[in-house]
Design goal:
- Helices cover 25% and strands 6% of the residues.
- By secondary structure, the protein is mainly alpha-helical.
- A two-stranded antiparallel sheet has the order 1-2.
- The N and C termini lie far apart (36 Å).
- The mean pLDDT is 87.
Length: 137
């Protein structure tokens, strides 16, 4: 799977460079949950992920099931760095809209626009809390 992703990303990147769109592109990779540690997909032998050093896995409330990494590449807009700022998966929608110069049409979104913070590391994240376990009794 990693090789297939690497090949596909290389193809997209090459096409962006060939069409002179690469420098003005924003490439984002993220996940909505941690990896399953065993037996995935369900009811099949499946495979497992390693979420170490985080505890737990997909479908759990531990950080191994809810905390993930993301990758943002935007040559014209961002300098290379590592950020430990809080960002929830719901933040990507308003952030990507902002990158495109748009605004959400609904004011009641759960996500927060993080584009300014991604561009300027001296700014604090607008996210001050995370909600876990909202649908479980």
């Amino acid at each position: 799977m990693v090789t297939a992703m690497d090949d596909a990303i290389g193809n997209v990147t090459a096409a962006l460079k060939l069409s002179n769109l690469y420098d003005n592109s924003v490439i984002v990779f993220f996940s909505d949950n941690g990896g399953p540690i065993q037996g995935w997909p369900p009811l099949q032998k499946g495979y497992g992920a390693n979420n170490w050093p985080l505890r737990g896995s997909k479908l759990t409330m531990w950080e191994g099931g809810t905390r993930t990494v993301a990758f943002v590449h935007a040559p014209q807009y961002l300098s290379p760095r590592i950020s430990t700022t809080w960002m929830h998966v719901t933040d990507w929608f308003p952030t990507i809209l902002s990158i495109a110069g748009l605004s959400p049409t609904r004011p009641d979104l759960d996500g927060l626009d993080q584009w300014a913070q991604l561009q300027d590391t001296s700014l604090d994240s607008p996210r001050k809390e995370m909600i876990y376990n909202i649908f479980y009794p």
